[in-house]
Amino acid sequence: MSYKAKASSVLAKIKKKGAPCNLLKPTNGMPVYDEATDSHIQPTTPFPGSCLVTSFDSKLIDGTVIKYGDVKILCAFKADVSPDNGADNIVVNPGTTHEKKFVVINSKDLCPDGRTNILFTVQGRQ
Known about the structure:
By secondary structure, this protein is mostly beta strands.
């Protein structure tokens, strides 16, 4: 079985039913001053993909590991990248009035052959 083909198929299905997204990974370099927010921002590299955003079952919200307002994001990316817990962000509907930015709190990947990431389940927090 070709897992690369499966990954492409999953990305196409999520793209059809979901929303565009970018996985933002911090890049090496000095933070840049942003006049609009009067703060320094760490430069990032965007990796495009598609995602479906849903909520957690209320029984799972314990206030510590999963907090009220956390979302579950099923996502697939065009590049071979993985979301890193606490370091990366996912921007849903980038560049639109519906843009939402989530910090990656926890991430699990579906990687059946140990090399090819097909799908990620991410716990996101605003």
